[in-house]
């Protein structure tokens, strides 16, 4: 089992590791099990120690949180909250003890840490690992409180996130005092120059291997050994972004360092700061070697030595992490800082104005760079593609997951990408890297399928998802039920995008057995799927269940946005049925626009469909009276037959024009597409229920402009259209306005990238 393998890995760990490092390696084995879908094995690994460390408690809390969050099960939050609170208190105690022990012993530092309390990994001050762990627990506690679905829970979440944001910002500034440029690759491409005469040391040799084992040490060191060999026995290299291997120049054998009279002195044994020296970097802070400099004039030799020390100090800050604790500090600081910057950058404008009160500021480009460093990914930094390196710290895996989610959202919802090929390449690189380590993990399978759907291979995406779910059904791989929810949800949308209506309906209905999120939304879409194949009885049966469902689900005392939308739609259908003297038990007879296609607009379903599917959808919509006035090569001009479902309101006519406009754009028929989108805007201004249509039509028109022409003029026109769309998104009474707000922000980012590249 995963747990037994984890025990073997821990036993194989270096016996000289500090207690903190051993606890970290042990807990990492639990996360490895979790990422392989084995949440039972993960719980066993996290619960194995009789006196679990804060690392283990955080792991247990993370399992409980993921089970609740992925399955949308707020009822499971109590367990996560209790465990995470214990982890938080444990981390605070361990941090305080490590700092106290470090202060009491002065500069005495050993590889085993300071009295076993915490070693900072050898390069950082004692206890910094606990500070990062503390910040991690605060983040998860905040998210847990948000899922409690209470007003107080949201306030507690905001308070927690504010505290964690401050911690990670402080850590980032300390761990990366010179910024991130030195971390363009996990193995820095620059190191002390030959003039510094720093010889290869035991600590370097432990991490780096030469290109030729039999060569002289003066040859270039070209590969960095993966540090997780401590726990898994695996190793990896750190290629540079252009595909070559980063190199580290070393002086001729026998040369001595100005910092030591011995060529064998380890860098990790360099002078420690004087007692009272501050800074997160234990020996590279304010009391570092540079602090001994006097203000007296320097001789040329002294200047050379000063420069050599500066270069060594910089290299020490930017060198590859050595050991699990150092790696945690670097990866954890980069992840936390990157995560918060990215999350805040994606908040709707209205929410950003609120959190701005707390002093939150963000830099999305820097966020992506920090996350890339944590995950060991190069493609986000260099423009030529590059590769990804297998990370070792669990923060690196979470950073990779964050990047996957972001790039998946950009591809799905922005509508247009400044460089779609690069975005896809980057996305795929991250997935390849992590899936190589956890091939059966549901989260990585999910993202593999998303890439296939986004790149025009929906049938392959369906096969990947069905194979993963089938393997779990057969017991071939571990089952993480909550993660299955995401696989089934993606499968449902992909099946719908291929007009496999009955299979899609079954998948959406299956979602109601997997989680307790909006069953009304699942039934609403499934009803549309049944309508598409003429199964009116099945569709009506699902629609009849919706009224009771939408009165149950609340978030913070408010209805879910999708359910607000659905309730309005149900009332609209009832009014239409009343006008036609139709009983409310036969609403399916008056539904003109298929609700599955309508809901698909908010998930941008129609942009990624095939030409065959788009053409079939256009013909379906054109078959409903009244006739479409726009001339289209897809249509033969046959007048539709009048039925009870005739579109007799501005709401329905505007919605049809919007759908037709998007689908014509998918086919590359930009002329008819623009006419239809402009018609949707004009007609939608008279809508009583579908008041969201004009704003979405403006957004889709901006996307069209960018696809038609690659020019500064097109960028300017798209910006103006987005300004108008933003005015609609700012209205709280507009259905799903926050989703439109987020899509506008994503598209503006892509426009900004295009301008920068022009």
Task: Give a description of the structure.
The protein has 758 residues and is mostly helical. Among the domains are: 2-175, no CATH class; 598-757, Serine Threonine Protein Phosphatase 5, Tetratricopeptide repeat (Alpha Horseshoe), CATH 1.25.40. Helices cover 59% and strands 1% of the residues. The protein has helices at 2-11, 19-35, 39-47, 54-70, 77-105, 128-146, 151-175, 202-207, 229-232, 300-318, 324-346, 349-355, 364-375, 394-413, 420-437, 442-454, 458-473, 481-497, 501-514, 519-532, 536-550, 561-579, 595-600, 611-622, 650-666, 670-684, 693-708, 712-729, 737-757, and strands spanning 208-210, 221-224, 554-555, 558-559. The strands form 2 sheets. A two-stranded antiparallel ribbon has the order 1-2. The protein has a two-stranded antiparallel ribbon with strand order 3-4. Helix 2 (19-35) runs parallel beside helix 4, helix 15 packs antiparallel against helix 16 (442-454) and helix 28 (712-729) packs antiparallel against helix 29 (737-757). The chain is globular and about 90 Å long.
